[in-house]
Amino acid sequence: MPGMNKPALLAVLCCLLVSCAEFPFLQQPASTETETGTTTDTTEPEVTEPVAENQPTQSASETERAQVQTVPVGSRETIVKTPDSEVSEAQEETESPAEQASDPSADGLEQDPTSDEPEAQTAPEVDSAKLIEELCGQIGNKLTSVSVRECNDQDLIHAAFSHDGRSLAYRDYLPLPSRDSLGRVLVIGGIHGDEFSSVSVVFKWMNILNQFHSGLFHWRFIPAANPDGLLIADSQRQNTKGIDLNRNFPTADWNDLAEEYWIERTYRNPRRYPGESAMSEPEIQFLVEQIREFDPDIIISMHAPYHLVDYDGPPSAPNKVGGLYLRELGVYPGSLGNYFGVDKAKPIVTIELKSAGIMPTDREIDRMWTDLVRWLREQLPES
Ligand SMILES: [Zn+2]
Asked: Cβ atoms within 10 A of the Cβ of 7, count?
């Protein structure tokens, strides 16, 4: 009996050990998964899209981003969480958007306590300066490369509200009265909220224009097209309704294909969710209105981290922008490239920076800018 029991006992002990050990081991991977959840999530489903080959680069740079962001994003820890910080992180998430969302509307509408959403858009007493100040305060705290002051110095103009009540803002650089404008160029950053560099680089280009605007083009800059996705504690690609804004444009194929594409090609990837109807999102309504009203000849749309230049529209695409080379990816139902490049048949350059969290060097930012301006001059020659 004792001879039989020993192995049996050992077995029982082992089982016990293993099953006890399961908890800490299981919990750790589980929390690690949430920790890098967005990152892993990004790489997987992207495979179903034509950019699949970039997967390794992307996952590499996204990991880099996760690491790097801990350092740069000083006051707000966005990406990296230690497993035990998950609870406080969750609290932070529910707290901070509400807090941030209520602020802007409260400022404009003190007399109307019930309205913290759509009414704010029509209210005449919106304090635009205050909204921009708040937006810049949050951007400056979020992005290492853009200071609060640098953002405020851009004299952004408040134009509409995001879903959570943040300012959707733009800045114009008018052509000089003394010379004819070659055309109108719209530059859009940060339509995906977790692509930090796509916002920062736009600010850097605005700094260049602040110094050297020659009046050659009429520029319009929208540095942060998805402020909620960018500025919530745990930044995300989609807006805070969970909708991928770059799948929500009212493209001709949206009703027929957007949902089908999402289900069959992305396997219902939440990061690619196009929404229930085209242009359902205030951020997209704003961008579509900007495109209608400003009527750009060319759009430059900033993304990361595929490390390439994508192009839609009539010829001819830039072969390279800085160190990024042309690689046409095609379009998706509801994407801006589809809306502007295909439906409107006008040129749109999509810049996919190398990393979402690591800024290109100043030299590379300058080179990209120079290449773009050179290309724009070729596309929009003096008549
Ligand atoms: Zn993107």
From this structure: 10
